[in-house]
Amino acid sequence: DFPMPRRAASVQPRLKITAPPTFARYLLVPHLASFTAAHPEIAIEIYLSVPLYDLALAESDLELRFGPGRYPNLQCEKLFSEPSFVVASPTYLKQVGELKEPADLKNATLIRSALEPWQPWFEAAGLDWPEPTTGIRVDDLGLLQEMVRHGHGIGLARAHFARELIEAGELVRLFDVELSAPPHAYYAVYEKPVLERPEVAAFLQW
């Protein structure tokens, strides 16, 4: 006779989270220890998604999305608001010359992204300029920041992602203008029934 396997007592609660790569790298992973310390019984699984493209919840319990916050038939909670501002690398600034005011950006190469459109920032800066349609375009915030860091042009950034590079002198913040409410933000997206599971509710509260 073989012993019966232990089942219920050994089943570990499992929480599957999908997040954009930059959010996972700069925000989720550095702070996750406080959650796992409080809930060592919960097994966390992290999957990556591409913002603005992966609009199905797939196999995840909870998805952290960067987007407009309008997701029909899904529960959606805004995580935080974060202004966007202009950054450049010291190397690029030496090449392009002095940029004293926002209008001087007409002489610069602007890194484009659907995630961080320029036009709303132009408006905040008092510039009646359309969205740029030429030049390098990327669809990942981390990659956008790397493009700027390596001197390919000027980009829009947010404090959580750019803080370390600014403190290290690898990025320089330009101008006093910031866009207080960018068109895209981070949201927790889920289907309502998953909140009945304690591990999901605990993570969302955290």
Task: Write up what this structure looks like.
- The chain is α/β, with parallel strands linked by helices.
- It is 28% helix and 23% strand.
- The chain contains six helices and eight strands, in the order E-H-E-E-E-E-H-H-H-E-H-E-E-H.
- It has helices spanning 21-38, 90-96, 119-124, 141-149, 159-167, 198-205; strands spanning 14-19, 43-48, 62-67, 75-80, 84-88, 155-158, 172-179, 185-190.
- Strands 2-1-3-8-4 form a five-stranded mixed sheet.
- The longest helix has 18 residues, at 21-38.
- It is elongated.
- It starts with 13 loop residues before the first strand and ends with a helix.
- Mean pLDDT is 88; it is low at 4-9.
Shape: elongated
Helix-strand category: alpha/beta
Give the end-to-end Cα distance, rounded to a whole number of Å: 46 Å
The biggest beta sheet reads: 5 strands, mixed
Strand arrangement across the biggest beta sheet: 2-1-3-8-4
Which band does the percent of strand residues land in? Answer: 15-25%
